[in-house]
Design a protein that fits this description.
By secondary structure, the protein is an all-alpha fold. It is 75% helix and 0% strand. It has one domain.
């Protein structure tokens, strides 16, 4: 740490700018890493809790009215499972209401409502779109870690090259080419930025890979949750594809 401080104060204006750039990248890297880990941990914990509550009451899936969890911090915590549930519920009720309207126009008696194969496919497409949207929220700003892991070594190398250039320029101007101590001191100071750049880039690269894998695992969990909800709704409201009247007792009645 003392070597870094010494190199910073010995650098010229451009060298100080390089150091400040590296310090900024380091701060940005660790801040983003800690923020993303915190957000993902809270989101996964809440999602698992929501999944268990839905699984216990899946027989009345479309009648559930769970409350959105209030944020416990200044950060906006995504709630992917909650969003997926409400997307499915709202879309399914909308389709059931439409089907009920058309059936009621053709049959005078109380009619049953159902979901056709096309309705199920529509719900599945809606869930896939919602999963992509939630993944985009979780993945937001993570590209900065990849950028830092690529930029930091180059910025450090720039500082090193500039420091070496200034060292030899100063030696030439003072006609002290034979001064080994001055050359070694200048090179030592210049190489600090390369070391600093690598120290920043390595954690950024590891963090980026870790977070991408964590989000990928979370995506699989969202897909499993979506399949569970979709299969439950399909089992309860799917139209029997036989030659039977739509108001047959075999089709579950739902009042919408």
């Amino acid at each position: 740490m003392g070597q870094i401080t010494s190199a910073y104060f010995q650098a010229d204006f451009f060298g100080k700018c390089v150091f400040l750039g590296l310090f900024t990248l380091s701060f940005l890297c660790w801040s983003l890493l800690l923020y993303k880990i915190y957000v993902l941990q809270i989101a996964r914990k809440d999602s698992k809790r929501f999944f268990l509550s839905i699984k216990r009451q899946k027989d009345s899936l479309l009648n559930l009215k769970p409350d959105r969890r209030k944020n416990r911090s200044y950060f906006e915590i995504p709630q992917p499972f909650f969003e997926l549930f409400y997307v499915l519920k709202n879309k399914a009720l909308e389709i059931l209401e439409k089907n009920h309207y058309f059936i009621k126009g053709k049959i005078n008696s109380e009619a049953s409502v159902y979901l056709s194969r096309g309705d199920i496919d529509s719900l599945e497409s809606q869930l896939i779109t919602s999963i992509n949207n939630e993944c985009h929220k979780l993945d937001k700003n993570i590209f900065l870690l990849a950028m830092i892991s690529s930029l930091a070594p180059f910025l450090g190398l720039l500082g090193t090259v500039w420091g070496i250039l200034m060292t030899f320029s100063g030696l030439q101007a003072s006609a002290a080419i034979s001064s080994n101590s001055m050359v070694l001191s200048g090179l030592s100071t210049a190489l600090v930025t390369t070391v600093l750049g690598l120290v920043i880039a390595i954690p950024a690269l590891v963090s980026y890979t870790y977070l991408k894998n964590l989000i990928k695992t979370f995506t699989y969990e969202m897909e499993s949750f979506s399949h569970l909800m979709l299969s439950t709704v399909e089992l309860q409201y799917r139209a029997v594809e036989l030659q039977v009247p739509v108001n047959s007792e075999k089709i579950q009645k739902v009042h919408v």
